[in-house]
């Protein structure tokens, strides 16, 4: 009897742990979305893109490419850089969102498991009368 009471006392701690995991996962998912959409991050990526375009222009000028071709080549290079940055940004964002949602689902599973164990323990303590 005493061991059953001890087990029942431990389950609210498990529920709180599950709630903590669920909240932490949701905070991670929302935080990663907020960080990816910040103006500072977008400004940094834009500066990197412009730096890479300047490097390509210097390489094209050093290779003695005619001036009328440089504009078109830079346009194609810019499109490739933007596409690469967008893919990288999407992959990182997706990873952290999925990680956060996975942690939240584990937390929810722990909460539900603790509730089920508490319910089962209360059913054992209270025998059914016919």
Topology:
Elements: H1 2-36, H2 39-62, H3 67-125
The amount of beta strand, in percent, is: under 5%
Strand tally, please? 0
Low-confidence stretches: none
State the distance separating the first and last CA atoms.
Answer: 22 Å
Structurally, the number of domains stands at 1
* Biggest sheet overview: none
Q: Which tags fit this structure?
A:
130 residues; rod-shaped; 91% helix; mainly alpha; 3 helices; 0% strand
Polypeptide structure, described:
The protein is mostly helical and 130 residues long. The protein has one domain. The protein contains 3 helices and no strands. The protein is rod-shaped, with a radius of gyration of 28 Å. The model has no long low-confidence stretch (mean pLDDT 85).
Summarize the structure.
The protein has 130 residues and is an all-alpha fold.
